[in-house]
Design brief:
- The protein is of the alpha/beta class.
- It folds into 3 domains: about 5-80 and about 220-305 and about 445-495, FAD/NAD(P)-binding domain; about 105-215, no CATH class; about 305-435, no CATH class.
- Helix content is about 35%, strand content about 20%.
- It contains 16 helices and 19 strands.
- It has helices spanning about 15-25, 60-70, 105-115, 120-140, 155-160, 170, 180-185, 205-215, 225-235, 280-285, 295-300, 335-345, 390-405, 410-415, 425-430, 475-495, and strands spanning about 5-10, 30, 45, 50-55, 80-85, 90, 100, 215-220, 240, 245-255, 255-260, 265-270, 270-275, 310-315, 325-330, 355, 370-380, 415-420, 465.
- The chain has a 7-stranded mixed β-sheet. The protein has a 5-stranded parallel β-sheet with strand order 9-2-1-13-19, with helices on one face. Strands 10-11-12 form a 3-stranded antiparallel β-sheet, with no helix packed on it.
- The longest helix has 23 residues, at about 120-140.
């Protein structure tokens, strides 16, 4: 029996997830990646002995990826070494208060009651009610939304009382916490979606619950080891990976995806095409305008997009023990800072920033006695026209100043041995991210579920989408889920028995 051929454009996390499942189920799977490595933004790089993750540093919802490995007869823990972090992270407020969310409930109670008497009761209420919400909403994110009839199923009706989609996340958290700073401690996770807590739907209150309920994990060697593990599993099942092989165009004939045209001029035909790159970039660069109806350049420009990020990767000749593994420093006026990013499109005088100091947990990331620091600063996407050619140097200096003062990293500049900077313009030009919106399409109510580009792509037959630009959305766990959904839709199209969990 001839195996059906699947071409996957891009070896990011979503593409690798689909590739694993399809290869294990006897499809002839070919992944074409323009770069010399797998992973997309879940990629790692080295600078003179220091190792950094390019993108994600938080590993949440381990069960999602573990499930994909289980679907292919494997155990994720046979491929990577995981460490559950406790405390989850350190939150630093403008007045110098430190808050360490933890699984140790005695410590959690003492911290919260010393800070805001009565707040621990709100926390226990949060954990109880958000568990119910999680149990209703997560099943809705593990299935496709291809038509309005998908809203008329039992699992969606059960989730309706818990969606809270018309209330902002910050306002919604008022049912648990009256103090604004305490709400910020449970809603800053909106940054995982590239959104403001004051605009992000209350649906996403489960993000913080996922961290508190299940945990935050580190992968030894860096989170990019997850992509290498997926690549290894994919190739063990006979999948074929083509690195340094960019795609020039997705071939469409009579409304059906027929394969791809490689940059070298070779045509590769296939029964199915899976698109993994940044969605808006792919539509603008890999699909000829004559084939597009719903996602033309003009219509894409009218969509709502996430913020971007300014990145510093620093190899230091010392280890700062006063930093936790994950550290988040909030601006003096957090809402004003967020509004500058998402509404006004300007650089704030006072910024929020995140530092990962993974070397205190993982000694493989830097030479002995040294450390690799990862620094992320949320920034406006490129639709606002900030000139990073002009702003890059001064903004980098401002971030280092804050690291030395607010984070207490005395002598930081003298400790830097190697450095890399990525601006929103770099994300767009070097990583092919539309307007540098690193978290893809915004997760507003009109861009979720069926209103997001669909896993079985509505523009062309035999074409499927994976990644942050499709359902369920951005963030590693949901991107993995997008790959799983699209792989199962392909199998379902071929009459294979599929169980939608």
């Amino acid at each position: 029996m001839t195996r059906k051929k699947v071409v996957i454009v891009g070896a990011g996390p979503g593409g690798l997830a689909a590739a694993m499942i399809l290869a294990h189920n006897k499809y002839d799977v070919h992944v074409y990646e323009r770069k010399e490595h797998v992973g997309g933004r879940n990629f790692g790089f080295s600078l003179d002995g220091f190792t950094f993750d390019l993108g994600p540093t938080f590993f949440l919802m381990v069960d999602v990826l573990d499930d994909i490995f289980s679907m292919t007869g494997r155990n994720l823990k046979d491929y990577v070494t995981l460490q559950r972090l406790d405390p989850l992270y350190r939150l630093v407020f403008p007045d110098g208060r430190n808050f360490y969310p933890t699984h140790d409930q005695d410590f959690m109670r003492r911290q919260m009651e010393e800070w805001i008497p009565g707040s621990y009761h709100g926390y226990r209420k949060y954990m109880t009610l958000e568990r119910k919400k999680y149990d209703r909403i997560i099943p809705c994110l593990r299935v496709p939304y291809l038509s309005p009839k998908d809203y008329f199923k039992a699992r969606f009706f059960k989730s309706l009382p818990y969606l809270n989609a018309t209330t902002s996340l910050f306002k919604y958290l008022g049912k648990y916490f009256s103090n604004p700073d305490m709400r910020v401690a449970f809603c800053f996770q909106a940054k995982y979606l590239g959104m403001s807590p004051w605009n992000c739907p209350g649906t996403f209150s489960i993000l913080s619950f996922i961290e508190h309920g299940d945990g935050v994990y580190h992968v030894r060697g860096g989170l990019h080891q997850l992509s290498h593990a997926m690549d290894k599993a994919f190739r063990e099942d006979g999948g074929q990976l083509h690195l340094n092989t960019p795609i020039r165009e997705i071939l469409i004939e009579n409304g059906t995806a027929k394969g791809v045209l490689l940059e070298n001029g070779e045509t590769v035909l296939a029964d199915y095409v899976v698109i993994n790159p940044d969605f808006a970039w792919a539509m603008n660069h890999l699909v000829a305008d004559r084939h597009k109806r719903k996602y033309t350049p003009a219509k894409l420009a009218k969509k709502k997009y996430s913020c971007s990020t300014f990145m510093l990767y620093l190899g230091l000749n010392r280890i700062y023990d006063n930093l936790s593994h994950h550290n988040i420093f909030f601006a003096k006026n957090y809402k004003a800072n967020v509004d500058d990013i998402s509404v006004h499109g300007r650089l704030s005088d006072d910024i929020s920033f995140y530092i990962q100091n993974a070397s205190i947990t993982d000694d493989t990331l830097a030479p002995p006695g040294k450390s690799a620091l990862y620094v992320l600063v949320p920034a406006a996407n490129n639709s606002f026209g900030i000139s990073w050619t002009e702003k890059k140097g001064p903004f980098r200096d401002r971030v280092l100043d804050l690291m030395e003062t607010r984070a207490g990293l005395t002598g930081l500049r003298d400790a830097i041995e190697v450095e890399r900077v990525i601006t929103p313009e770099d994300w767009e030009k070097e990583e092919n991210i539309y307007i540098g919106a690193t978290f893809n399409l915004a997760h507003t109510i009109d861009q979720m579920l069926m209103f997001r580009p669909r896993n079985r792509f509505e523009e062309f037959r035999n074409c499927y989408l994976v990644g942050g630009g499709t359902h369920p959305g951005s963030g590693l766990p949901t991107i993995y889920e997008s790959g799983s959904i699209s792989a199962r839709l392909i199998m379902e199209q071929d009459g294979r028995e599929i169980e939608w969990r």
